[in-house]
Amino acid sequence: MKLIVQIPCFNEGGTIKETIRGIPRKIEGIDRVEILVVNDGSTDNTSEAAKQAGVEHLVEMNENRGLAHAFKMGLSKSVELGADIVVNTDGDNQYLGDDICKLVCPVLEGRAEIVVGCRPIRNHPEFSSFKKLLQLFGSWILRKASLTEIPDAASGFRAFSRDACHRLIIHSRFSHCMETLIQAGNSGMSVHWTDIRVNSKTRESRLFKSVPQYLIKSGSTILFMSALYAPGRFFSFLSITSFIPAVLLGIRFLYLDLYGLRAPGSYLPSLILLTVFSLSSILFFSLAVVGELLKS
Predict the structure, then answer these.
(1) Could you tell me which residues come within 8 angstroms of residue 125 by beta carbon, excluding any fewer than 6 positions away?
(2) What's the pLDDT at 295?
């Protein structure tokens, strides 16, 4: 049984050694543990530091292509190297390497294909109240979209079975965290989670420059992935949101017309709006049907 711990990195020369040294080399049920560093076009000494720390494998990219692409490259290389289980962690030493044992256990026992390490969001000492609220609300939205019960959707500390690595397809350039959960949950993969610990923050996030940017990128990713992997549910919801106003406008028009409460010629704006909502509802429902057929 071979485990490969992959670490996507972009300018992590200051923390990569500590991250690698914290990864356990002996885990019960695992015969061999190897480390793969994916250098996502770093301009510092990330590669040299990784080599000095004793990594077995290093993937070099000529330019920075984003976390999602680096993650995808790591999965592909890990499978090529014969990994039975792949654990993804961050190069900034955010997660404790000793908790890898918690991640791989459900996969080893055949209880899960993907295991997510969930941080203590409510009690995280470095999260402000606003950030905690955003994390909790975002994870709730993603649970509905992915049909999973993961309390920390933004965590990148995860374990994947070899079969899960073969089945996952990454489209996003922003982050793999939300996309893989939506895909896995709507594809029938077994997704579990476990509590993990975190180290002190070493730097600010490089995925986004501001909270509005993060919300826009996250929201667009959730919408796109929902339309891609759950088109029936996604477009049916949009159909209902158009159908309800159409019904209410229709009832209002009939009521006013039957009881003579409408002045002659004043019904045209309401009928136009009724037509728009009705056609939108039919269109979205048609997309739901076609989407499910294409998905099948």
Answers:
(1) none
(2) 84
